[in-house]
Design brief:
This protein has about 425 residues and is an alpha+beta fold. The chain has 13 helices and 21 strands. It is globular. The structure holds glycyl-adenosine-5'-phosphate.
Length: about 425
């Protein structure tokens, strides 16, 4: 892998309106990022692809959109108030702060070799106050995972729908963590989005269903274009499990800064429902048609939208030599590409070409994200579209006036094909399926 690959990707994202540093005109705000005009399209496509595969295409999963702010008792029950902590150490010399767990040498600063302070425990949840007066009585937390919104709505979903075990509740939403060692672009940030599924099963089925979800989630990334040799399934050792988990397998990606977690699939047992049942005093048992009531166990595939996007970007990023020049391409899966096709009149000032190109644009724009692009030479326009991952460029030239055909250029092969204007919509529909 190219050494400066991350730098190149960060630069491309800024240059092409995919991801900007947050609060950029004020010099940024550490470890927060904004999705630009193309980035938001990419992000929506990633979320839609997840929603389609987890909710839309499955009769056994329903969706949810729960609030970020929740009753603080939720975080007591879930164990986050007590357990969601990192031990931190400071260097007495250079003042750099580290997670104690990340340090190989627990006695010396890895930056300057200075002496380290004793480890202090630090909760990762962001605190805020509800109401005008700041007091210990009105503390609320920005949720550090979307999962708890699902557990506290388990009974509501049971009572309001016809779900039967096994079934899942899925949601996509923001989560917040006061990360001490954030970094690596959007890999670890203070504010991020998660896609989480809580899949409720009988305890006897938990380990089979767990294995199935690891395979299904791995396949999702591969089906959306990630080279499977860049992915790995890594089971956690028992000694390294989160407080709620009986087993976890991470799906990891070979990022330029090292192989790291993309998504975790956890067997959470009945930990969460049991905790919430106890603290809320509400019965959260499931009543099967026959047999005794029971607390379901849960399998949780939990991924980060921003990490998934970063992996899709890294895997899609290519530099190729073409005619003595370097062409940068994002070979994104067409389903994820922000713009599906660009319509380019060969000559900007030719009214006839412009009219044909604009008509094609108007004809496509209600069904697909397409772009009309007449700025600069045709070569420049191809490069621009390659850099944002547009799979097809549709060029209108002189011959289009007579034969009512256009040239379609394929992003990855750069091959060209002539297509009748009247067939363009069908052509794109087939290719984008
Ligand atoms: N409900 C389980 C849970 O939250 P997690 O492993 O802590 O598990 C799940 O988080 C996913 O959320 C991770 O695999 C990662 O993709 C994403 N994630 C976690 N912390 C993140 C951060 N600080 N920045 C970006 N993504 C993060």
């Amino acid at each position: 892998m190219k050494q400066d690959l991350m730098k190149d990707i960060v630069a491309l994202c800024k240059r092409r309106g995919i991801i900007f540093p947050s609060s950029d005109i004020y010099g940024g705000f550490a470890n927060t990022w904004d999705y630009g005009p193309y980035g938001v399209l990419l992000k929506n496509n990633v979320k839609q692809a997840w929603w389609d595969s987890i909710v839309k295409s499955r009769a056994d999963v329903v969706g949810l959109d729960s609030a970020i702010l929740m009753n603080p008792k939720v975080w007591k029950a879930s164990g986050h108030l007590k357990e969601f902590r990192d031990p931190l150490v400071d260097c007495k010399k250079c003042r750099q702060r580290f997670k104690a767990d990340d340090l190989k040498n627990k006695n010396k600063c890895s930056n300057c070799g200075g002496e380290l302070t004793k480890a202090k425990s630090f909760n990762l949840m962001f605190k805020t106050n509800v109401g005008p007066v700041e007091s210990d009585k009105n503390i609320a937390y920005l949720r550090p995972e979307t999962a708890q919104g699902i557990f506290v709505n388990f009974k509501n979903v049971l009572d309001s729908t016809r779900v039967k075990i096994p079934f899942g509740i899925a949601q996509i939403g923001k989560a917040f963590r006061n990360e001490i060692t954030p970094g690596n672009f959007t890999f670890r940030t203070l504010e991020f989005e998660q896609f989480e599924l809580e899949y409720f099963v009988e305890s006897k089925d938990a380990s089979t269903v767990f294995k199935k979800w690891v395979e299904d989630r791995f396949k999702w990334y591969v089906d959306l274009g990630i080279n499977k040799n860049n992915l790995a399934k890594i089971p956690h050792p028992k000694s390294d499990l989160a407080h709620y988990a009986k087993a976890v397998t991470d799906i990891e990606y070979k990022f330029p800064f090292g192989q790291s977690e993309l998504e975790g699939v956890a067997n959470r047992g009945d930990y969460d429902l049991k905790q919430h049942q106890e603290l809320s005093g509400k019965n959260l048992e499931y009543a099967p048609v026959e047999g005794k009531k029971f607390l379901p166990h849960v399998i949780e595939p939990s991924g980060g939208v921003d990490r998934a996007i970063l992996a899709f970007l890294v895997d899609a990023y290519k530099e190729e030599k073409v005619g003595g020049e370097t062409r940068t391409v994002l070979s994104l899966h067409p389903k994820l590409a922000p713009i599906k096709a660009a319509i380019l009149p060969l000559v900007k000032k030719d009214a006839k070409l412009v009219k044909i190109a604009k008509d094609i644009y108007e004809n496509l724009k209600d069904d697909l994200f397409v772009e009309y692009d007449d700025g600069g030479t045709i070569g420049k326009r191809y490069r621009r579209q390659d850099e944002i991952g547009t799979p097809f460029c549709i060029t209108v030239d002189d011959s289009s006036i007579k034969d009512k055909k256009v040239t379609v250029r394929f992003r990855d092969s750069m091959k060209q094909k002539t297509v009748k204007i009247s067939d363009i919509k069908d052509f794109l529909d087939k290719k984008l399926k």
